[in-house]
Specification:
The structure is a homodimer. By secondary structure, chain A is mainly alpha-helical. Helices cover 46% and strands 8% of the residues of chain A. Chain A starts with 5 loop residues before the first strand and ends in a 6-residue tail after the last strand. The structure holds a DNA duplex. Chains A, B: InterPro entries: Cro/C1-type_HTH, Lambda_DNA-bd_dom_sf.
Chain lengths: 74, 74
DNA sequence: ACATAATGTAAATCAAACTATACATTAAGT
DNA sequence: ACTTAATGTATAGTTTGATTTACATTATGT
């Protein structure tokens, strides 16, 4: 329950960037693959710190990856 | 330990916005005053969800309030 | 001098992010 | 047919964000 209000485009971005795998992204940002899986599934929203690291990895502003709103899908 | 790598301008912004008190900001974003205190002190970085709510309250993009880097102060 | 509002600090507890491990499924290569 | 890489799913456990409560300090107003 307690639905997550933060969505993201991580999955899409992985494929736009070199077909990066979940494991590769996990390694780059310093978390486990399970964390990436959970984020892509939308199970929970990341810490701000992790969000910054992911944004940095994709060379994008944080708000182009993560979005906040009632509508889960943007 | 485990120093926090995310800083913010919350305190500055409170005074730029109507001299908003910690309690008022806490109420607006739906947390307790202690959470605001801890954030201003830099004790930890907020959840991404809370970061979005704070940014929304100040009508600013998230990255103008929160920043990531070795240098704690921006 | 007294009251009140805003802030600082601290510690116990709760809730959510994140880890670790494990196993199943699908697709691609040899 | 077999192996390997990538992904899906699940669950118990650890870490850390956030709450709650409580009390101290400083400034302002009366």
């Amino acid at each position: 329950m307690s639905k997550n209000l933060v969505g993201n485009h991580i999955r899409k971005l992985r494929f736009n960037h070199d077909e990066m795998t979940q494991q590769q992204l996990a390694d780059k940002v310093g978390v486990t693959r399970q964390t990436i899986v959970a984020l892509e599934k939308g199970n929970y929203s990341p810490s701000l710190e992790l969000a910054f690291r992911i944004a940095h990895t994709f060379n994008l502003p944080l708000e182009e990856i993560f979005y906040y709103g009632e509508n889960t899908k943007q």
